[in-house]
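Translation initiation factor IF-3 structure dump, as promised
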Amino acid sequence: MQPPVKSGPRYNNFIQVDKVRVIDGEGENLGVMYTREAIEQAAEVGLDLVEVSPNADPPVCKFLDVGKYRYEAQKKANAQRKTQKTQELKEIKMRPNIDDHDYDVKMRNVNKFIENGDKVKLTLRFRGRELSHQELGMNLLKRVQEDVEEIAKVEAYPRMEGRQMLMVLAPK
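structure tokens r here:
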């Protein structure tokens, strides 16, 4: 008995079940047959018996070229990885007594990040006496929340962490 293949589908002698449902190279269903018999038929046409659906009962096997099958599966996985968009977490830092123009610039960045599909972490830093006026920070974060209501939802509501108040926004 040979050790199982480490990656990819099982094929030929690595298939451990007695009976399999077989599909030939043209896609014709040959029905359920013994694995040995199916391997011999595949060898006659110069192909391998490849397990394409191992969880079915009985497992579904197809007459294929194993190398070509693996290569195409790898190409498909690479193409999916290429088109996949990873979501980043962008951070915007503010102070509780931010000026209107500065606020507008920060909000422009927040909108840009959210339109690109990234999450935005808003950090409000309190210094000195500002810490005793946390309601100013809460009001500012509520204002941000109202301004981005159409394009974003609040993922983590405002909370204090030491001298900072944090809120996370995610695109809708």
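The chain is about 35% helix and 30% strand.
lmk if u need the other ones
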